[in-house]
Amino acid sequence: MNKSELIDEVFAEVGTMASKRAVEECVNVALAVIMHWTRVEKVTLAGFGSFESRERAPRVARNPITGEPVQIPARTVPVFKPATAFKAKVAN
Q1: Do residues 53 and 80 both lie within one domain?
Q2: Which of these, 33, 44, 90, 92, has the minimum number of CB atoms within 10 Å of its CB?
Q3: Nearest to 48 by CA among 8, 10, 92, 86
């Protein structure tokens, strides 16, 4: 499922309560808010999961072709941890 299919599904669920344009705007705003706040603090959606950013330390990796060491700089990465209810729903 891609973003436009998600919007279509949400629109189908809300029916006549909102226009498709309004649903699209809500999805876009929700994603933007999650991305913004994940840089600042952990964002938790009960029953779904949590989003946060983590620092990765610099490290030395190896080029798989030449075996030569490659320095990888420190960086910040996004992390998603699914909630127990979400894991159970996917497993069944």
Answers
A1: yes
A2: 92
A3: 86
